[in-house]
Amino acid sequence: MDEMVLPAILRIAKAHRVRRAARLAELGLHPGQDSVLLLLAQMRGCSMRELAAALGIKAPTITKTVGRLVSAGFVERREVAGDQRKAALDLTAAGEAAAACVEALWRALDSDALADFDPEAEAHLRHMLDRIGQNILRGAADGGGLDGAAEQA
């Protein structure tokens, strides 16, 4: 049987996840918190709902993650004038420093992963990965594409 592409992508994702988690631990962070810090650096003063939507995750998940970042001193919640139910999220000075470290970490991981690639090969890889992602999403929108697989089994 020919080597399938998706298992290779999953192996790469797992290797990245393990290495990223180890490096994040050095910063006192857990996987997932890095994405929140980077996004908050771009979306200063956003609401929990806006942050969850931008990350494509559910509100309970972001509530827990933000709560941990607040407890660690990386994020602060501020009351929104005129609406005590809403809170605006922002980075503290420690959060800004952590976000800068996370960005440097992501750049280093990216650079390491593409160390032997010339710029043309990098561009081609990015294009191919984008196409794979679009194809997967298109397949999900079309009902998953499992009908043919069931018939072949």
TrEMBL record:
GO terms for biological process: response to stress. InterPro entries: HTH_MarR-typ, MarR/SlyA-like, Tscrpt_reg_MarR-type_CS, WH-like_DNA-bd_sf, WH_DNA-bd_sf. Signal peptide: none annotated. Residues 2-134 form the HTH marR-type domain. The keyword Iron does not apply. One of its GO terms (molecular function) is DNA-binding transcription factor activity. It holds the Pfam family MarR_2. Keywords: DNA-binding, Transcription, Transcription regulation. The keyword Transport does not apply. This is MarR family transcriptional regulator. It comes from Propylenella binzhouense.
